[in-house]
Amino acid sequence: MQSSVSPLGAAVPSILVDGLPASHALATPDGWVEAGDLEPGDPVFTFEQGEMPVAAVFRSAQARNVPPAFWPVLLPTGAMDNDHPVELLPAQMVMLESEWAEDAYGEAFVMVPALALLGWNGITRRPPREVEIVHLQFDTPQVVFAGRCLLLGCGGTGAMAANLFRAQGLMTLGLKEARQLVAGLIAEGERARFLPPDQAAPPYAAFAPAPLL
């Protein structure tokens, strides 16, 4: 676990707010590979630039005893076409596609913090567990496939390793704007329940790599 020093000199744990669980698999040319098994130089499929090598990998430990404001966000099975529950840290950036975003920002694809997803498709929070968290960096910020419809932001290196994810050509929303967008998606989802099944295709199906398992 990374730690910092308090004014009184006592070591205190750093609270992680982004990064990927080491056990979460990402799409690569070699199949779905757990994030914790990736090393610098390994290729990973990205949303806009295809196959890109990982530039750097950092590993941390998620502490169990953190304030509720920093608890992970839980995506239940099916929330974003995921076939198993997914746990994301609150500031982990997630890609959404929405007509609401296109109308408001001129971009259909936007990046939002996982925290903004609360209340949509059964997404909630749960107490953290002691798990390894992996921080992948590319030469420039990238969006990686963590599932067919689950795309996550990974930072760049050097000057591109800022706290706020910024990828060229992608709109990044702050928490307030992202919450407003998700509120629209929640309302849209209530109406979508009455649409025929063939009108509810996964939003990223055309962009996802071919099945790799």
TrEMBL record:
Q: Which InterPro entries match?
A: Hedgehog/Intein_dom
Q: What is the lineage of its organism?
A: Bacteria, Pseudomonadati, Pseudomonadota, Alphaproteobacteria, Rhodobacterales
Q: Which domain of life is it from?
A: Bacteria
Protein name as catalogued: Hedgehog/Intein (Hint) domain-containing protein
Any Pfam family from its record, for instance, is Hint_2
Annotated Hedgehog/Intein (Hint) domain residues: 26-148
